[in-house]
Write a structure and sequence with these properties.
heterodimer, A: mainly alpha, two-stranded antiparallel sheet, 21 helices, 62% helix, B: mainly alpha, Cytochrome Bc1 Complex, Chain C, two-stranded antiparallel ribbon, 10 helices, 2% strand, globular
Chain lengths: 437, 256
């Protein structure tokens, strides 16, 4: 019958695209959560919270309507936040050469600023469309794919954010001005925001994520932080060495020097200790240098405005802010990268063991199980560890011979985990004065 | 009237039987019942559940973003239907009583906000649900990107998702064109200029989408109203159903 045919098609047999076995004939125990009422109740809670939030917002934050449309427009037009990136790209598009190809033919193409804006807005879309065909392989957590994740943070988040920021350049230029009336953040500085912060965000995320996945990062960290420090020192030195170029801000040269020192000293300290000292020391220095540098900067910000004449802060900022890409971002990223790249990764269990799907190959090759028995007969080191039943037996019986890692289809480094756990125990004993508790 | 509880035996005596004697619905209804009763009593297990993996529980909240955007879409549909009863998609300029420029669309917005009972709440819901939906869709895309969930075998679903995020952004853009206020005028000007900048067919494309190559005639309001309430919902809903159907078939991509 037709219904039997349909049933057979839908319900039975191993089918490509259907990873699970369905139907009345399925034999295995299904440990999921029932759809009704458990899952349905949980979903209902989410729905109610969401609708309540919408009611709250619409009751207290009435959407703006404003005057009726009119061809005479004077005010600044800002689209909704999700289109700001495109608007920013349209505004920056005039840096590209404008020319016309095929003039006089039906295929005349005018590379105007608006067309460049169209092309630039198309870049994220094209990237998203081709993504699954460039980046292949199996799905994985961010720390296991550091390049993809760092690129995503730099491109999908930082770059979109800086493009959005550029779309309100007029607001920024009006809102923050130097005492002589010029914009505190010039247009050229804001244009560099398209490049410098996203690149720094990407590099820092890459180093931090690789560290999170237990890679030693010193050989990447040291050159990166040293280069950033060299740029900061060179920029600050160029400003300090030539006060005549500061113009009207020259009257506040001592304050400017203090501001430069607050930026330079923590960066140099972090870089020096990262270069010369053990990682744990570099970690502590970067923590303190970053925290104290931030506090000093904020304190300086308040103190100059409070103690000195109020215009002093404006003049100091008129020197610092146009060099934001080098004097503000690079110290932050140098110290932040040193801090993230020297941190000791936490939750070793999740990052080293969690991919296991229990094929049992490791147990088969484990030499310890051939000579040791426990009460249940046949000691299974790996199994006990995965069930978090390490009462000391798997931890101290493992030979760390790595036979299990050699056969593991997912390259799980079991002995790394064992050594890491042993290190924790030893560290705890050392903290207790070297004696067992 | 006593029934036996069996659809086949009750034919002719129930409403369903009345339909059944005219249309061949029983095999499909029967099949649906079997599917519902045997298969879907429980949600399909994720990869992590199937292999009893130790999952990273604190990532779970990120897996509700697609659902949140769909709930927001349902709220948008309901409030949009209600707003449609009162909104007038006519953006042609008129001289008001005191000599200022108005248009019927903007005046109908005033009516919704000031005269219709709960009108400002309905518009507020529509407004905030739109923002929540776009934010949720973007964050959902970020979650899929950062967990690598677009990879084999889910490439097709990722492409559908890219189309859906574009449709969502077009929903938002057409939505803030409709009130025919100053923002609408500015946004329509930017849109017309960007469309006209495309080579060869620029002006024709702008005329197709906006009704004209400038905002002066106000025709863009009617064009984008139709795109907003018919074309985008039609395409969008179809793609959403497909998108969620593929998730159901292929399972949730859960990194472990």
């Amino acid at each position: 019958m037709q219904i039997e045919y349909v049933k057979e098609k839908v319900m039975e047999g191993p089918r490509p695209g259907f990873p699970r076995q369905y139907g009345p004939d399925r034999l295995d125990h299904q440990p999921g959560i029932p759809l009704f009422p458990q899952e349905a109740t949980r979903d209902l809670v989410t729905i109610c919270l969401l609708v309540a939030m919408m009611f709250f917002l619409s009751a207290f934050v009435t959407p703006f309507l404003g005057p009726a449309r009119s061809p005479q427009l004077s005010e600044l037009i800002v689209p909704d936040w999700y289109l700001l990136f495109s608007w920013g790209l349209l505004k920056v598009a005039d840096i590209f050469p404008q020319f016309t190809i095929g003039a006089g033919t039906p295929l005349k193409t005018e590379f105007s600023a608006a067309f460049w804006g169209d092309l630039l807005s198309g870049i994220p879309v094209i990237f998203l469309l081709v993504l699954p065909f460039i980046d292949r392989g199996r799905e994985s957590r961010p720390a296991k794919a550091p390049f993809r994740s760092a690129f995503g943070i730099a491109f999908l988040i930082a770059w979109i954010f800086t493009s959005s920021l550029y779309s309100i350049r007029e607001v920024v230029a009006q809102r923050w001005t130097a005492p002589n009336g010029t914009a505190l953040i010039p247009d050229g500085t804001m244009k560099w925001f398209f490049v410098i912060p996203p690149v720094l965000v990407g590099l820092t995320s890459y180093l931090a994520l690789r560290r999170l996945a237990f890679a030693p990062m010193r050989r990447y960290l040291v050159p990166y932080v040293l280069i950033l420090t060299a740029i900061v020192v060179a920029q600050a030195g160029a400003i300090a060495a030539n006060p005549a170029a500061l113009g009207a801000a020259q009257a506040f040269f001592p304050e400017i020097l203090i501001a430069l020192a607050i930026v330079v000293v923590p960066t140099v300290l972090t870089a020096f200790f990262l270069f010369r000292a053990p990682e744990s020391t570099a970690r502590k220095v970067s923590t303190w240098a970053g925290a104290l540098g931030l506090l000093a900067f904020m304190g300086f910000y308040g103190a100059v405005a409070y103690l000195d004449r109020p215009t002093a802060l404006g003049w100091v900022l008129s020197v610092l802010w146009p060099n934001m890409n080098t004097l503000v971002f690079m110290p932050i990223f140098a110290i932040g990268t040193a801090w993230l790249g020297t941190r000791r990764p936490y939750s070793t269990y999740e990052y080293l063991l969690n991919e296991c799907y229990q094929c049992g190959k490791c147990h088969t090759v484990c030499p310890v199980t051939k000579v040791e028995d426990d009460a249940l007969g046949g000691l299974n080191l790996v199994y006990n560890t995965f069930k978090k039943q390490h009462d000391g037996v798997p931890l101290w019986t493992c030979l760390a011979c790595d036979a299990c890692s050699a056969v593991c289809p997912l390259d799980i480094q079991y002995s790394d985990y064992i050594l890491e756990e042993r290190r924790k125990v030893n560290a705890a004993m050392a903290a207790d004065g070297g004696r067992r508790e | 009237m006593a029934t036996t509880g069996d659809i086949r035996k009750d034919t002719g005596r129930t409403v369903f039987g009345w339909i059944k004697s005219r249309f061949p619905t029983v095999p499909y209804a029967d099949l649906t019942r079997v599917v519902v009763e045997t298969d879907q009593r429980q949600l399909p297990r994720s990869h992590a559940e199937k292999y009893e993996l130790k999952t990273i529980w604190y990532w779970y909240p990120l897996y509700c973003l697609g659902g949140i955007s769909f709930i927001a879409f349902i709220v948008l549909t309901i409030t949009g239907i209600l707003l449609g009863f009162f909104y007038i998609p006519d953006g042609r300029l008129e001289l008001g009583a005191s000599g200022d420029l108005t248009n019927p669309a903007w005046r109908s917005m005033l009516t919704i906000m000031n005269d219709i009972p709960f009108g400002f709440i309905i518009r507020g819901m529509h407004h905030w649900a739109a923002h929540i939906m776009i934010a949720a869709v973007f964050l959902h895309m970020c979650r899929v990107y950062f967990t690598g969930a677009y990879k084999k075998p889910r490439e097709l679903n990722w492409l559908l998702g890219v189309l859906l995020i574009l449709i969502t952004i077009m929903f938002g853009y057409s939505g803030y064109l409709l009130p025919a206020n100053a923002l609408s005028e500015g946004a329509a000007n930017i849109g017309i200029n960007m469309t006209r900048a495309s080579p060869v067919i620029g002006d024709q494309l702008a005329t197709l989408l906006f009704g004209d190559i400038s905002t002066l005639s106000g025709r863009y309001i009617l064009r984008w109203y139709w795109i907003h309430v018919f074309i985008l919902p039609l395409v969008g809903t179809a793609l959403m159903v497909l998108h969620m159907g593929l998730v159901w078939l292929q399972g949730v991509a859960e990194p472990h």
